[in-house]
Amino acid sequence: MIFGRSERGKPPVEPVTLKILVAGGFGVGKTTLVGAVSEIRPLRTEELLTEAGRPVDDTSGVEGKRTTTVAMDFGRITLREDLVLYLFGTPGQERFWFMWDELSEGALGAVVLADTRRLEDCFAAIDYFERRSIPFVVGVNCFEGAARYPTEDVRQALDLDRDVPLVLCDARDRESVKEVLIGVVRHAMAHAAERRQTAVTS
């Protein structure tokens, strides 16, 4: 398809649309990731951090952060002519977690962003998706100035199952993020195939 028109003799392709969540701790780069790959201007629900929120918004390690997502980020990326991903970035702070159930409805899978300086901040997201059997990939966002660790060390620190993919990424870089999203789709499809096989044999 070229500029919205089918090539001569080929019927228009109706793309499959898939929903992917982007989760993780406060200030880990979820909004940046969605913005890096979205073909449309991302819908953002960011508000300025205030003095009133200081007791509940831990900014240690991300002292330069001035805004926070209070509902969700939304973006869209076409991976192939027949495959479109809708990205929903979840709010990181605990007081907004009530929205996760609604956002996760119908999701194919998820990206859990991690920051090696604050690994504990992504435990809640990992637990959430594990409990609900939503397939997910952990993307370690490589911040400038942060120490780099072997992926196996990070996997052990997060106590991840062996079948959960863990990749290094740069949430600012479109190609890096695309690779993470492709990894989510592949992992989710393999997960679905495994469940179907289990259902058939049981």
UniProtKB/TrEMBL annotation:
<keyword id="KW-0342">GTP-binding</keyword>
<dbReference type="InterPro" id="IPR027417">
    <property type="entry name" value="P-loop_NTPase"/>
</dbReference>
<comment type="similarity">
    <text>Belongs to the GPN-loop GTPase family.</text>
</comment>
<dbReference type="InterPro" id="IPR052705">
    <property type="entry name" value="Gliding_Motility_GTPase"/>
</dbReference>
<dbReference type="InterPro" id="IPR004130">
    <property type="entry name" value="Gpn"/>
</dbReference>
<protein>
    <submittedName>
        <fullName>ATP/GTP-binding protein</fullName>
    </submittedName>
</protein>
<dbReference type="Pfam" id="PF03029">
    <property type="entry name" value="ATP_bind_1"/>
</dbReference>
<keyword id="KW-0547">Nucleotide-binding</keyword>
<keyword id="KW-0378">Hydrolase</keyword>
